[in-house]
From TrEMBL:
Xref: Pfam families: BROMI_C
Transmembrane stretches, start-end: none
Coiled-coil spans in chain: none
UniProt name for this protein: BROMI protein
Residue ranges of domain BROMI C-terminal Rab TBC-like in the record: 1-243
Amino acid sequence: VLAELSEKFVSHLSESRTDCYFSTGSYKAMDADVKKENLSSVQQLGVEMTVRYGKYLNLLKEDAENGLCFVLMNCEEFLKQQQRTVASSLCCLQEHYAGYDWFASSIFLIMSGDREKTLMFLQKFSCLLVSAFLWLPRLHLSVHLPVTTVECGIHPVYFCSAHHIEMLLKAELPLVCSAFHMSGFTPSQICLQWITQCFWNYMDWSEICHYIAICIFLGPDYQIYMCISVFRHLQHDILKHTEA
C-alpha cells in the first residue's frame, strides 16, 4: 500500500511545474545485465547487507542482488547528468559518491525488489525538493548548487537540516542539548549519520518506511521534527548516560 501510495503521490507532483524544484534530463536505463563487480567495494558491501535485510523481512527474492545493482548503477549514471566537475583532493568530491546509497536501497525494499518500478520512482522523485534532503547522493557535485557550496564538500543536509535540529533542540530539549555540549559531541553529527543511513540500524523497518513517507507526503521539514522526536524519546537515556 505504501509503495503504491508513494508512487502515485510522486508521479502526480512530478507532473506539476510548481512542484518540480529541479530539472530532470531524459535518461534511458541501461539494458545490460549489471553485475556486482561493476560497483565499488563499499557499494558491494551495502548490496550484500540490503539483500540480507530484505530477505529477512521477506521482501526480496533470490535474484534481488542483480536488481539492486541495476538500480544503483543506473542511479549513478542518471545523476551524473546533473553533476559538475570539481578539482579537489577531498574524498567526498571525487566522481563517485563516497558512501552507499541507503535511500535508493530503502525504496528498492519498499517496492519489493522491482527494479523498474524503483528506478522510475527515483527518476520522478529527483525533481522534487524533498529529494535533496532524503536522497543524499542526489546533490553530490550537483549543478543545482552554487560552486562554492560544492567545493566546500559539506552536504546541504548538514547546514540546513542539522543546523535547524540544533536550534530546535536548544529550545525544545535544553537538558539534552547541554548533555551533548558536555560530551564534546554535537547533535548534528549523530543526526547526519541517521539521515545518511535513512535510520537503518537505528529503527525498525516499519518506522523507516514511516520516516520516508512522512517526509515525502508532508515535506522535508519533517526530517527535522523526526530527529527532535527521537531525541525526546531518548532523553531519559541520554541524561542517565551523562550522569554516569
